[in-house]
Backbone:
């Protein structure tokens, strides 16, 4: 039986864009679910159950791959990636609970701005004038979202979200470091699930709140949509060039604004839209490079 022909470049870009838009939609649903359950549960509980549910979903992968998937000689990099990643998750989930959804998504989208700087300092990767321009434009947009001199509580939440964006960037650069050691992506994802679930369990116990019966399904859904959303993003960047489909990651802003308006009556301020335009512009500058 003849093998299927490879995708044309145009078809690959279209399919990659669909995976990216779908993946961002799933992650936006995760954000909305987190904001909803945050009224009853602590951030520590939500982080733990998100990682536990994701780990349960990954178990079939381990069973199919066999014990060879668990063998690694760079456990220290896995540990660093896990600790940094779960801390970023705490910051992001807390920001979602305490900020309008659109602003929380925008602060998260500032994460790529930190990556060239971290990669330059750690991996000695050179950054050109495009990266510097993107950094200036992007952080100008972040400043509009932070709104210095405005509501102190909001600014504090945004700063926590910004810290989470920086830590997420550090975690992604750590993944790049792991990839340099020929670690397969399945092993990286699995060890992150193990470390994140293990580390977040004591904090969840220390900050335990009674879980309403109807919330158990929502907690599992948070882990499920997060896991499948990440898989969709991975698939998108695997089949299509980042420069061709990366712009579709900013669909998260539309999802956040729509769900924030529908479910929480959140109307973004003009400063938020201006900040969004600047952050998206910075992303386009990097993609053009």
Residues:
């Amino acid at each position: 039986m003849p093998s299927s022909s490879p995708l044309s470049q145009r078809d690959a870009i279209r399919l990659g864009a669909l995976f990216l838009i779908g993946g961002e939609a799933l992650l936006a649903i995760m954000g909305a679910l987190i904001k909803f359950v945050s009224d009853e549960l602590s951030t520590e509980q939500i982080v733990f159950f998100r990682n536990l549910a994701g780990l349960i979903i990954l178990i079939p992968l381990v069973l199919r791959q066999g014990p060879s998937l668990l063998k690694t000689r760079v456990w220290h990099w896995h540990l660093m990636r896990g600790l940094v990643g779960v801390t970023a998750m705490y910051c992001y989930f807390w920001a979602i609970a305490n900020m309008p959804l659109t602003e929380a998504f925008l602060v998260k989208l500032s994460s790529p701005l930190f990556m060239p700087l971290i990669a330059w300092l750690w991996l000695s990767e050179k950054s050109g004038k495009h990266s510097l321009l993107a950094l200036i434009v992007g952080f100008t947009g972040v400043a509009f979202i932070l709104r210095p001199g405005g509501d102190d509580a909001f600014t504090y939440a945004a700063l926590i979200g910004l810290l989470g964006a920086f830590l997420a960037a550090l975690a992604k650069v750590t993944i790049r470091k792991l990839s340099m050691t020929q670690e397969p992506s399945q092993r990286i994802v699995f060890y992150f699930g193990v470390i994140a679930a293990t580390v977040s369990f004591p904090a969840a116990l220390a900050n335990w709140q009674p879980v309403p019966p109807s919330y158990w399904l929502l907690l599992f859904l948070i882990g499920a949509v997060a896991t499948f959303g990440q898989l969709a993003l991975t698939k998108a960047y695997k089949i299509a060039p980042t420069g061709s489909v990366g712009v579709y990651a900013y669909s998260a802003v539309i999802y956040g604004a729509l769900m924030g308006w529908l479910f929480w009556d959140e109307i973004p301020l003009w400063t938020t839209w201006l900040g969004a335009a600047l952050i998206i512009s910075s992303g386009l500058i990097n993609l053009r490079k």
Summary: The two ends are 42 Å apart (CA to CA). The chain has a mean pLDDT of 82. The chain has twelve helices and no strands. The CA atoms of residues 29 and 225 lie 7 Å apart.
